[in-house]
Amino acid sequence: MKIATYNVNGVNGRLPVLLRWLNETAPDVACLQELKAPPEKFPEQAIRDAGYHPIWHGQKSWNGVAILSRIGEPKEIRRTLPGDPEDIHSRYIEAEINNITIGCLYLPNGNPAPGPKFDYKLNWFKRLTAHAKELLAAKTPVVLTGDYNVMPTELDVYKPERWVDDALFRPETREAFRNLRDQGWTDAIRKLYPDEKIYTFWDYFRNAYGRDAGLRIDHFLLSPQLESRLVAGGVDRNVRGWEKSSDHAPVWIELTD
Question: Is 166 among the annotated ligand-binding positions?
């Protein structure tokens, strides 16, 4: 079972790129972030024509998450992260596919930090951590994947000294990710590549992609039931070089049945 995550940075504006990637790599499940489209503007028919059953949670101009499956209809569990009924941002959606619970998330950026946006990021992290604890308690296979907007270690960022005050790399953010992971989750890409420089995002500015000045901010966390089933994973970094592509590249893992 191949599961991928991809921050598309605008699902309609980059639909040709998304469809080309789906056609060329054929993940069984694809989790998307930053749809930047209200629910009624999601390109449902194009996705279905590509062979995928979608569920989505959109929002005008900002945020937005979706789960696409080509191995049957996703059984939607929830489309909000528990803990704050007044939070209207479209940042989380969860479904069951092939007996695996898949949570697709777009964690807040948090800049400028410190400030209200950074506070929101840390509070969202606390809510995610609380929900993740409940998911682990159920003792069922779970994948939590998406754009976490955090570089966990210095290995995950080009020239870390330039990012010390950024919300994606501040100590509070890395500690929040570490607290989440230490509940018993496995960082899939780091398990496969413990010492390698791997990036999933390259800014549009200063030829970041050409210089390989990137960040690893798109992650897979696996529950204990899935750790032994992890057999492969990687980043489709060539997609970042396609014309009119997102500033993120797709990330994927493979699990044995």
Answer: no
